[in-house]
Amino acid sequence: MNLFDSTSEEFEFIFLLNWGVKHIKADIQVKDFIQIKAAIHIVLEFLIIIIVTSESKCFVSTFLSIIHLLVIALLVLLFVITLIFVILIFFVAFIVIFITIVFDFNFLNSTLSMLFSLNLFLLKQ
What we know:
mainly alpha
């Protein structure tokens, strides 16, 4: 099913393409534009077939459900990645606190007192 008259449209397309290449000085090959045009034709034919056929509603609903599932999968993936980072941050904080307690309790005490005094200073402001 060819929706376009290939001879006149290709001639018009190549003429406009040559004019654009001369005036814009583009480095894009004519064959690349012809491949892009062919891809656009295929997509347009596919969309028209979807709209015309009686199964289009079923296909569109299936397509939308697939997109919906992909969005849900992406959200779950983002949640899992966020959860992994939160667990990793807590694990690193636990290790730092554990090492600080075991090796230098005075450092932890001075750090906590400094944070507490900074908190009091900010509350007074």
